[in-house]
Amino acid sequence: MATHRFSLIIKVQREREDNLQAQFIKAQQYFQQAEQKYQGLANYRTEYIQQSQRQGSQGLQSRQYSQYVNFIGKLDQALIQQARVVHQAKAAAEQRKQSWLKMQTKRKALELLVERADSAALQLLERQQQSLSDEYAGQQFYRRQLSQEQ
What we know:
The structure is a single chain. It contains two helices and no strands. The protein has helices at 2-56, 62-149.
């Protein structure tokens, strides 16, 4: 019935939905990787500071201290940059999730529309069949009445 008319549209909607879901999954994985990288950098920075403090308790030369401060500064810059990447990746994943959910809602609405159209068409067909059946039964009754009168 109506399903046949809309099956191609629903198929295309499902393909788009699957594509958007795959994009969301990739974006989510990228976000998780970026977050892990950020955590790795933060952990490395903490470990480096702790190690340097242990060495510093034994005494540092000014050159070593300068290198230590410069390297900590570079780690801080890397953390700031990676935090931006994490933020952007999270926003991209959320945007892709919303696109996927929106497409899913559209597909479900289309399927519901088709289901309702099919149901209405089936009810119409059943009413037509009932009408024909009633008409046939009425004709049979009328013929029996005529044959009994004769």
